[in-house]
Amino acid sequence: MNRRAIPDDLAERILAGERRALARAVTLVESTRPEDRAQATALLERLRGHPESGGRQALRIGLSGTPGVGKSTFIEAFGMALVAQGLKVAVLAVDPSSTRSGGSILGDKTRMEQLSRAPAAFIRPSPSLSHLGGVSRRTREAVALCEAAGFDVVLIETVGVGQSETMVAEMCDLFVLLLAPAGGDELQGVKRGIMEMADIILVNKADGELKSAATRTCADYAGALRLLRKRPQDPDGFPKALPVSAYTGEGLDRAWDEMQTLAKWRKDHGWWDKARAGQAAHWFAQEVREGLLARLRGDADVRAAMAERAAAVAKGEVSPDAAAEEMLEWLKG
Ligand code: GDP
Questions:
Q1: At what angle do helices 300-314 and 320-332 cross, to 10 degrees?
Q2: Which residue has a Cα nearest atom 14 of ligand 1?
Q3: CA–CA separation, 65 vs 126, rounded Å?
Q4: 3-state DSSP call for residue 91?
Q5: Ligand 1 pocket residue status of 60, Cβ below 6 Å
Q6: Cys-Cys link to 178, which of 48, 65, 172, 201 (CB 3.0-4.6 A)?
Q7: Is 205 in the pocket of ligand 1 (CB under 6 A)?
Q8: CA of 71 to the centre of ligand 1 (A)
Q9: Does residue 94 contact residue 167 with C-beta atoms inside 8 Å?
């Protein structure tokens, strides 16, 4: 990131909803330089403790779908519909480098041309060449920054490859899966785990020739969803499958209504706070685990002790389990 000192009033400017300040802060949380990390942590704590930001909560929506299903077209149309209602919308992309060739899915802002120009919207591409752990922390912190900046809705977009969905589901209030109408009568090759995470399935491209296929696909998925999942945090009728068209805009209002209904129900029944508290605990444990591992990897004595035992295991002198046990004992001592 650029080396200019972080301005003293950055927190205040974020709280005032200034997009440039927000962009600057997101760049700061993306940095892995230790001095930037320290500043990022301090900034986030300051925002958290600030009386103005304390109560601000956005609706965090995870949005997943395989490439080509229409995510960017949908986000553009859906985001513009929310903006037209006077809402502030942030879009963050989660794109671990392993899933694409080092590029960023939102790197090209022309993907969401109108939304990226809307004053009430903030679109942030995924930093390229980052690993899942880094992406997860950066995304959580960016979400926190968007909430402090007063965004009403934060869409977290992911590409449908499994691991990143699990991560996104742990940082959002609702998880939406975007699908395309199925050609045949079989369900598409959606991983069961991703289906189970979905609160709402939107079958996109429900327009023109595809409309009737979309309706059929919805019925198939609605049935499958009910068999897959019934949780106490789902009111009657959820999870749901609905047809939408990002092209014509049909179904977008209904989709938004359903998202709000579900969010409100979970708030009213205590699930919202419970889920957020559980997520915070999850990320705390995760950060401690990752921090410990990073510390161990950075320690030359530990590396030497590991290498010695790994060599003994490779030669068959000791079993992997016995060697691991011994290594753990060594670490304790
Ligand atoms: P992404 O890879 O998931 O971001 O998908 P895109 O938004 O780039 O869309 C992939 C293709 O589907 C493009 O050719 C879009 O024009 C098309 N598409 C997206 N939404 C719709 C829709 O609602 N109806 C139809 N018929 N096509 C759509």
A1: 160
A2: 68
A3: 16
A4: strand
A5: no
A6: 65
A7: yes
A8: 7
A9: yes
Q: Is ligand 1 within 6 A of the CB of residue 71?
A: yes
State the residue for tokens 């209030």.
Answer: 173
Q: Which domains does the chain have, with CATH numbers?
A: 1-53 (1.20.5.170), 56-268 (3.40.50.300), 281-332 (1.10.287)
Q: What is the pLDDT along the chain (333 residues), one digit of tens a residue?
A: 455 567 779 999 999 999 999 999 999 998 888 889 899 999 999 998 888 776 789 999 999 988 888 999 999 999 999 999 999 999 998 865 544 444 444 444 457 889 999 999 999 887 655 666 677 888 999 999 999 999 999 999 987 666 788 889 999 999 999 998 875 544 556 677 788 889 999 999 999 999 998 988 898 888 888 787 777 888 888 999 999 999 999 999 999 999 999 999 999 999 999 999 999 999 999 999 988 998 999 999 999 999 999 999 999 999 999 999 999 999 987
Is residue 43 within 8 Å of residue 9, measured between CB atoms?
no
